[in-house]
């Protein structure tokens, strides 16, 4: 089993997207990249801890590779807006890839170069690529949030459209 740590706005969105994919064994919402030990949601949302909302993805590389996880990452959020995803604004919503080894760093750089060359986005990619710091799991009520709260407005208005996009663009990767 391998791991990936990605931040692309609200961790609820990424959790819901990656939980649908074959080869993804577990998705854990959490915090990474800050300076406060054992941060909680309030500290992260205040911007004082320096952490980013992320997901830690445990995946089977024989079923889904890291590059494919990154392709989904760039499809499910806007990597051109610093510290913002839609109405979610703040440093905790940064677009960031926390790499765990040189292979992940190289894969991130290659995919970002390709996206820029192909002019996939109307603005430059601002996604940060940084070595992974300690990952802190978020509180239990953040785990598997969409699956437990699909009727909430945020889930309906923000997450559901992202999931529909994933189902259209990456149908072959979805669990049966």
From TrEMBL:
<feature type="domain" description="Peptide methionine sulphoxide reductase MsrA">
    <location>
        <begin position="3"/>
        <end position="156"/>
    </location>
</feature>
<keyword id="KW-0560">Oxidoreductase</keyword>
<comment type="function">
    <text>Has an important function as a repair enzyme for proteins that have been inactivated by oxidation. Catalyzes the reversible oxidation-reduction of methionine sulfoxide in proteins to methionine.</text>
</comment>
<dbReference type="InterPro" id="IPR002569">
    <property type="entry name" value="Met_Sox_Rdtase_MsrA_dom"/>
</dbReference>
<dbReference type="GO" id="GO:0033744">
    <property type="term" value="F:L-methionine:thioredoxin-disulfide S-oxidoreductase activity"/>
</dbReference>
<comment type="similarity">
    <text>Belongs to the MsrA Met sulfoxide reductase family.</text>
</comment>
<dbReference type="InterPro" id="IPR036509">
    <property type="entry name" value="Met_Sox_Rdtase_MsrA_sf"/>
</dbReference>
<feature type="active site">
    <location>
        <position position="10"/>
    </location>
</feature>
<dbReference type="Pfam" id="PF01625">
    <property type="entry name" value="PMSR"/>
</dbReference>
<protein>
    <recommendedName>
        <fullName>Peptide methionine sulfoxide reductase MsrA</fullName>
        <ecNumber>1.8.4.11</ecNumber>
    </recommendedName>
</protein>
<dbReference type="GO" id="GO:0008113">
    <property type="term" value="F:peptide-methionine (S)-S-oxide reductase activity"/>
</dbReference>
């Amino acid at each position: 089993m391998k791991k990936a740590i990605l931040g692309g706005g609200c961790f609820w969105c990424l959790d819901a997207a990656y939980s649908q994919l074959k080869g993804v064994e577990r998705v854990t919402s959490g915090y990474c990249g800050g300076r406060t030990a054992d941060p909680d949601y309030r500290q992260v949302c205040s911007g004082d801890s320096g952490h980013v909302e992320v997901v830690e993805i445990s995946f089977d590389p024989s079923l889904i590779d890291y590059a494919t996880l990154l392709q989904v990452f760039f499809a499910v959020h806007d990597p051109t807006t610093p510290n913002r995803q839609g109405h979610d604004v703040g440093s905790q919503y940064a677009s960031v890839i926390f790499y765990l080894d040189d292979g992940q760093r190289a894969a991130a750089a290659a995919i970002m170069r390709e996206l820029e060359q192909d002019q996939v986005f109307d603005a430059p990619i601002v996604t940060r690529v940084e070595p992974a710091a300690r990952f802190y799991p978020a509180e239990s009520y953040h785990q598997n949030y969409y699956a437990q709260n699909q009727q909430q407005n945020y889930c309906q208005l923000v997450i559901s459209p992202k999931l529909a996009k994933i189902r259209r663009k990456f149908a072959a990767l979805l669990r049966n």
